[in-house]
């Protein structure tokens, strides 16, 4: 980020004032443990060009490098998990695009620094694809994307070894779920919605709107 403001008009129309690096780090330090947990999911609903998401990704990749730089295969698998856990929405298309490109640049730069010539182009292609799905242009108030369709996010879960399963969820249902969770049980204690208990997140989640068969993480584009 070079400046905190791009234009007066953008500030007036979209409240676009970027957060400086010192504040980003101070705020992320409040949840430091989560920023250093490789699979911990982050969603920024007004992500701009990615000041917060870029720092989260840098922190996660630093952990991946410290644990796995001696094994390029492991490094790439965990770096995929790190990038696939980061989500963003911005109402301005140029911001969403810049955010995606910035995050991709971090994945490429950090992986080349960590495992040098061993970086596989398929890993980088998969990271780019995931960022296209995870960083969207849309309205975080109406929960619609730039085409007017409901914002849908993909969950990428490692099922076994290198295999990743993609499930798509409506953002509106994920948010509603968060608030509705305490009223999930009727007076008898039985479930009153069709949500499922997810062992990974240890929470009730809505049904996926679409599921894909597991594929190797470097082949996630095949389902696209
Ligand atoms: C104050 S800036 C913060 C940007 C970034 N989070 C940061 O801290 O540097 C607010 C951002 O929200 C975006 N924005 C404004 N209204 C929005 C909406 N309804 N949905 C999604 N993004 C929105 C703007 O385009 C701008 O990038």
Q: What topology does this entry show?
A:
Layout: H1 8-14, H2 21-29, H3 32-35, E1 42-44, H4 51-68, H5 72-84, E2 86-90, H6 93-115, H7 121-134, E3 135-139, E4 144-145, E5 152-160, E6 163-170, H8 171-180, E7 196-198, E8 203-205, E9 210-211, E10 215-216
Parallel strand pairs: 1-2, 2-3
Antiparallel strand pairs: 3-4, 5-6, 6-9, 6-10, 7-8
Bound molecules: S-adenosylmethionine (SAM).
S-adenosylmethionine binds at residues 14-19, 44-48, 51-52, 89-92, 95, 139-141.
Q: If you had to describe this structure to a student in words, what would you say it looks like?
A:
This protein has 224 residues and is α+β, with helices and mostly antiparallel strands. The protein contains eight helices and ten strands. It has helices at residues 8-14, 21-29, 32-35, 51-68, 72-84, 93-115, 121-134, 171-180, and strands at 42-44, 86-90, 135-139, 144-145, 152-160, 163-170, 196-198, 203-205, 210-211, 215-216. The strands form three sheets. A four-stranded mixed sheet has the order 1-2-3-4. Strands 5, 6, 9 and 10 form a four-stranded antiparallel sheet that branches. Helix 5 packs parallel to helix 7 (121-134) and helix 6 packs antiparallel against helix 7. It is globular, with a radius of gyration of 18 Å. It binds S-adenosylmethionine. S-adenosylmethionine (SAM) binds next to helix 4 and strand 2.
């Amino acid at each position: 980020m070079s400046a905190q403001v791009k234009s007066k008009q953008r500030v007036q129309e979209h409240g676009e004032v970027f957060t400086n690096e010192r504040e980003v780090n101070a705020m992320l330090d409040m949840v430091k443990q989560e920023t250093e947990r490789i699979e911990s999911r982050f969603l920024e609903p007004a992500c701009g060009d990615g000041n917060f998401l870029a720092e989260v990704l840098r922190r996660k990749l630093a952990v991946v490098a410290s644990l796995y730089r001696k094994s390029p295969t492991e490094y790439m698998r965990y770096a995929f998990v790190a990038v696939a856990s980061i989500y963003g929405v911005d109402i301005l298309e140029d911001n969403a695009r810049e955010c995606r490109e910035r995050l991709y640049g971090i994945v490429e730069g950090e992986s080349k620094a960590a495992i040098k010539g061993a970086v596989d182009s398929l890993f980088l292609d998969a990271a780019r694809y995931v960022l296209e799905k995870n960083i969207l242009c849309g309205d975080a108030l109406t929960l619609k994307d730039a085409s007017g369709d409901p914002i849908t996010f993909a969950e990428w879960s490692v099922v076994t070894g290198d295999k990743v399963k993609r499930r798509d969820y409506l953002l509106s249902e994920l948010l509603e779920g968060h608030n509705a969770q305490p009223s999930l049980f009727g007076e008898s204690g039985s479930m009153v919605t069709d949500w499922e208990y997810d062992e990974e997140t240890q929470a009730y989640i809505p049904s996926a709107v679409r599921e894909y068969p597991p594929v190797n993480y470097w082949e996630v584009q095949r389902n696209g």
